[in-house]
UniProtKB/TrEMBL annotation:
<dbReference type="InterPro" id="IPR000836">
    <property type="entry name" value="PRTase_dom"/>
</dbReference>
<dbReference type="Pfam" id="PF00156">
    <property type="entry name" value="Pribosyltran"/>
</dbReference>
<dbReference type="GO" id="GO:0016757">
    <property type="term" value="F:glycosyltransferase activity"/>
</dbReference>
<keyword id="KW-0808">Transferase</keyword>
<dbReference type="InterPro" id="IPR029057">
    <property type="entry name" value="PRTase-like"/>
</dbReference>
<keyword id="KW-0328">Glycosyltransferase</keyword>
<feature type="domain" description="Phosphoribosyltransferase">
    <location>
        <begin position="11"/>
        <end position="181"/>
    </location>
</feature>
<protein>
    <submittedName>
        <fullName>Phosphoribosyltransferase</fullName>
    </submittedName>
</protein>
């Protein structure tokens, strides 16, 4: 798909919602946002589709000294996905991997507790899960999410992202049932270049959007 620049994450969510129109009104559909940045995108999709919204926490394993580069990712249930090329090229030792993973696992647990505010996660068994992030770079985080979600036995997993390089989209098509991407820049360098406003999403914004989504469904 042609390159596109979004105003912000909410704008990107509305664009994706139009591409997911065929899921609107289906009672089996749930929308999961990857915190933090994926949640504003997912909120717009959930509102448009009339579907419940939840978070699915996945943590990138940043390369020590170059934390923006993912050497892998972890998700709930002990799922670990590694970027073997990055690990091999950087000469990362098993001990370093374990240390980084342990730190990110603690943050994963903290975020799950903070975002849900004591609430239980949605039951995903037999549901069609639309899992959303604000973009992909290597795709490691989303691959970890898909691997972890398979353990919940959903009927299907749809990955929805506003922007990603074509190779990352291709890799995800091997594990997800469908991948919907609104923009695949030919010279992809970073997710943020696909946005005019790419300000960091805060924990409080995530909680506010989850509360707002739940209130809309109660009032529907």
């Amino acid at each position: 798909m042609a390159e596109r620049v979004f105003e912000d994450r909410r704008d990107a969510g509305r664009v994706l919602a139009r591409l997911l129109e065929h899921y609107r009104g289906r009672p089996d559909v749930v929308v999961l946002g990857l915190p933090r940045g994926g949640v504003p995108v997912a909120y717009e999709i959930a509102v448009s589709l009339g579907a419940p919204l939840d978070v699915f926490v996945v943590r990138k394993l940043g390369l020590p000294g170059h934390e923006e580069l993912a050497m892998g990712a972890i998700a709930g249930g002990g799922v670990v996905v590694l970027n073997e090329d990055v690990v091999r090229r950087a000469g990362v030792s098993p001990e370093t991997l374990r240390e980084v993973a342990a730190g990110e696992r603690r943050e994963l647990v903290r975020r799950e507790r903070a975002y849900r505010e004591g609430g239980a996660p949605l039951d995903l068994m037999g549901r069609t899960v639309v899992v959303v992030d604000d973009g992909l770079a290597t795709g490691a985080t989303m691959r970890a999410a898909v691997a972890a979600l398979r353990r919940h036995e959903p009927a299907g997993i749809v990955v929805a992202v506003p922007t990603a390089p074509e190779p990352a989209v291709g890799e995800l098509r091997e594990s997800a049932d469908q991948v919907v991407c609104a923009s695949t820049p030919p010279l992809f360098s970073a997710v943020g270049f696909s946005y005019r406003d790419f300000a960091q999403t805060t924990d409080e914004e995530v909680r506010d959007l989850l509360r707002a989504a739940a209130a809309r469904r109660v009032g529907a």
